[in-house]
Amino acid sequence: MGGCFSKPKPVELKIEVVLPEKERGKEELSASGKGSPRAYQGNGTARHFHTEERLPAPHPYPGTQDCVEAAVCHVKDLENGQMREVELGWGKVLLVKENGEFHALGHKCPHYGAPLVKGVLSRGRVRCPWHGACFNISTGDLEDFPGLDSLHKFQVKIEKEKVYVWASKQALQLQRRTKVMAKCISPSAGHSGSTNVLIVGAGAAGLVCAETLRQEGFSDRIVLCTLDRHLPYDRPKLSKSLDAQPEQLALRPKEFFRAYGIEVLTEAQVVTVDVRNKKVVFKDGFKLEYNKLLLAPGSSPKTLSCKGKEVENVFTIRTPEDANRVVRLARGRNAVVVGAGFLGMEVAAYLTEKAHSVSVVELEETPFRRFLGERVGRALMKMFENNRVKFYMQTEVSELRAQEGKLKEVVLKSSKVVRADVCVVGIGAVPATGFLRQSGISLDSRGFIPVNKMMQTNIPGVFAAGDAVTFPLAWRNNRKVNIPHWQMAHAQGRVAAQNMLAQEAEISTVPYLWTAMFGKSLRYAGYGEGFDDVIIQGDLEELKFVAFYTKGDEVIAVASMNYDPIVSKVAEVLASGRAIRKREVELFLLHSKTGDMSWLTGKGS
């Protein structure tokens, strides 16, 4: 949509619906169902089906007054493989030169706004330096996740050795492009008891599956159901920003679902799946037949099983309401966090500025030990201690004591007693697959749903994705793994949708995750389970480092702080199919004190 050089033929007209930035995520679906086009009653519980409602579309041919053109550089100013941010007056553009050709794209990652000029250019795509999303430089299309939107692509022409970029002002200001999608041409009226595609779970996997189907031209009925009161939202933000309101977290506004005929059933719990008759039954007795099914139920947080577990003001963080209540109760009071994994540590970091005291209880001897290793874990622990967080390590909770029903003290197995007005439990999660036990859909001994590379379960037409699955990880010799990361759920949702449409896609993404604490970000790529050594470059005390996790002779994961874009660089190398050898890293560290990582993009050791 960015280009304005020539009018396309009318037959090729595709109108894209792109909401202005300020409108995104504004509205929240009310649990009462007010304003929903239809509410079906089932045993007294309102069912909300959100159906089609057209958005006003921008005019397909912006006039020349809506466009801007500028000479941005000389052809020799950029070498092959270089990127530069250039100014067009109405906004910036990312100019890329690869194989002698210039490309102009949106300059910010649509996910969280990272400057893509600081990312990694490789194999015809640019990878975001913050969270690893990838965009095709020829089209601007999103090719790897996280995030939902693509980049605008702008027209480039070369005249008298000068590079000119021509763009619509609207595209320059929006900085994101929602792919063209089909509308639903078979609305639910008249056959509300059946749908073509049913998606159980409205996290990243469920939403990306629904959007991918529409992007691929699928125009039949899609129903997305969720236990939540809300439309799909950015769950990783919950523990990093506990004050966030549901409307700030929304991944898409309500109008988006109406415009593309993606029906969302909120507060809808599936209790049985009948694969023989292709039918699901909800808790309120409502029945829905399907043709294709995606199971993306996610996981349920583990809870404490100690004495006093039923006292008030003890929380797992699952919904915006949970997060908001924790902040309210912690303000000026004593907070205890059980579990020093990602969720627990993010919550502890957030509460330090709100609570009177923050304490963390953990069974291991250092936070993140299994994931990041002893040395990195200790460096992070020090950062927390410098921010007044008290740690009780190598112990667990033996009792929660209450006063008038409300939490007052947490008693540890080490017999220490910690004052507590609110407690957050972050001790892991289990797959939310109990409803599948009698279904004939295979579950493993831990309750995960095993799938193949195409996200297919053992039952034809039934797919699964997200935190509740185990799948073959291509670049770790197809080892069956469970990777409960936000980015991975996006990728699996997309592959499931492509295979519902018989496109024979396979999951091949490199896992990528991040955490943010005290305004500092840690990025991580790969799959480090079973690492036997950690090679660290940089300064752990200053929290400016990169850590390579190795197993035998191979680098299997990398983590960094203040060392961008190294994690995206490693992810790109692993995605290309090249192994990084331990001795490459060791040799490099021996000869380099500069932190230069150009050796990584070389063609082998």
UniProtKB/TrEMBL annotation:
Residues 70-165 form the Rieske domain. CDD domains: Rieske_AIFL_N (cd03478). The keyword Transport applies. One of its GO terms (cellular component) is mitochondrion. Its main location: mitochondrion. GO terms for molecular function: 2 iron, 2 sulfur cluster binding; metal ion binding; oxidoreductase activity, acting on NAD(P)H. It is found in: Mitochondrion. Keywords: 2Fe-2S, Apoptosis, Electron transport, FAD, Flavoprotein, Iron, Iron-sulfur, Metal-binding, Mitochondrion, Oxidoreductase, Transport. GO terms for biological process: execution phase of apoptosis. The keyword Electron transport applies. Transmembrane segments: none annotated. It holds the Pfam family Pyr_redox_2. Residues 23-46 are annotated as: Disordered. InterPro entries: FAD-oxidoreductase/Apoptosis, FAD/NAD-bd_sf, FAD/NAD-binding_dom, FAD/NAD-linked_Rdtase_dimer_sf, Reductase_C, Rieske_2Fe-2S, Rieske_2Fe-2S_sf. Induces apoptosis through a caspase dependent pathway. Reduces mitochondrial membrane potential. Belongs to the FAD-dependent oxidoreductase family. This is Apoptosis-inducing factor 3. The gene is AIFM3.
